[in-house]
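thought: fold this chain, then report.
action: predict
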Amino acid sequence: IVINLHFTLHQSMNLNFSEFTNFTYLKNMMFKYEMDYEDFVMFNTATEQPQNEPEIHIYSAFQKNASSISPENLKMSQDYSKSFVEIIYNKEKFKDAQWIKVQGTFMNRYIDFDLYRMHHLICEIKRNSEILEWKSIGINNKIGLFDNRCFHEEINLYHKEDFIWDEVYFYVKIPDDLQNGDTIKTYIWNNVKNGDLWIKNLELEFYK
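observation:
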């Protein structure tokens, strides 16, 4: 009964949505009544994030000529961003890296999103045409949370900040069977189609 009441309260506070929820998120939110950034990520990915921020940096991959690229305006008519980062895995170069940090900087503009429709930051790992790993997080409800730039007293799954730039990121565990020649790519998928998203500084970072 206590657990049922707990989840009912979560629903009423917009901290849970039964059609999208997963065990990892529910376990992490047990008897919590405030969300932090990692909770938002686990709601999307259904996987644990590193308990502590990885400190040993191995390698970074940026958008080509990132310093000279103007921010991209991903319009509502576009399905995918023109901006992306793609690398070919090489075990000698990436050594014993265990995590990929997938990140970018984004700004909402007049976007009316919900949990069904958001812009998604994608991490895609492929071997030829076979997808080995595909993870995504919604971008729109996380802008303003990373560096506490929003001033909302209550933070829930429908959080929204317009017209500020902020970093959105998540970690992906590197598959044990990753091979030389496999590709790792990040890009944006537009599943909103009712507002524009501005994008800059897409990056893949590898950590031990």
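thought: worth noting. The chain is about 15% helix and 35% strand.
final: tokens above.
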